[in-house]
Design a protein that fits this description.
Layout: H1 2-10, H2 14-24, H3 32-48, H4 55-71, H5 76-88, H6 92-105, H7 110-122, H8 126-139, H9 144-156, H10 160-172, H11 177-194, H12 197-205
Helix pairs in contact: 1-2, 1-3, 2-3, 3-4, 3-5, 4-5, 5-6, 6-7, 7-8, 8-9, 9-10, 9-11, 10-11, 11-12
Length: 207
């Protein structure tokens, strides 16, 4: 059930994600992950399936998250959802503060770092987005996600050489097959679209 709710969220099927999590929640009331999945789906229902944002619903979710945060101060996913609600309430400064606090105070901070980078990108604060990604690459050097995000920002800035160098550096930091595969695929695509086609073909052939 948990995995099914996550899959519905990935597919942006908010109604099914909400119903799946809501029906499963009473079976294990202590499962915070199910609560957070239900809350996340409800946030998107409140903002995307109405002509206007349902602020009353967001207020109720914010109160529920505040209670969960008090009980689980180290959970980064609680803070991320609080920052998302802040954005939909039009308080970008609060969203930024929540994510910075999550990075400073929580366990498993990569998700908050990536969310902060996306926040800066949405605000067109590219230098700060790049700085956050670069720091995340240093902290989580064996994981593909921050390297891919940093390379993507360099591509947006039309700095293909930096994007290539970033992916090559990321590859030098991990031996994990799947992490390497993700970065190699991105590097091959970069070469095919913006660089040396032969190099891109070779990278794909060697996978």
């Amino acid at each position: 059930t948990l995995q099914l709710a996550k899959e519905y969220l990935k597919l942006r099927d908010w109604n099914r994600a909400f119903e799946t999590a809501r029906l499963a929640e009473p079976l294990d009331p202590t499962d915070i992950v199910l609560k957070l999945l239900r809350i996340e789906a409800t946030i998107y229902l409140a903002v995307e399936q109405q002509e206007e944002i349902d602020h009353g619903r967001l207020d109720a979710l914010a109160a529920e998250l505040a209670d969960l945060r008090a009980k689980h101060p180290d959970r980064v996913d609680v803070r991320i959802l609080q920052s998302i609600i802040a954005v939909y309430r039009g308080d970008d400064d609060l969203a930024e503060r929540e994510l910075k606090l999550a990075i400073a105070e929580c366990d498993e901070t990569l998700r908050a770092e990536m969310q902060l980078a996306r926040h800066y990108y949405r605000m067109k604060r590219m230098a700060e987005a790049i700085d956050v990604c670069r720091t995340a690459c240093q902290r989580h050097s064996a994981i593909a996600e921050p390297w891919l995000s940093l390379a993507g920002l360099h591509v947006v800035e039309e700095d293909i050489d930096q994007a290539r160098a970033c992916l090559q550096e990321g590859l030098s930091h991990t031996e994990n097959y799947w992490e390497r595969r993700e970065m190699t695929l991105r590097l091959a695509g970069l070469e095919l679209l913006h660089g040396q086609r032969d190099a891109g073909v070779t990278l794909l052939r060697d996978l």
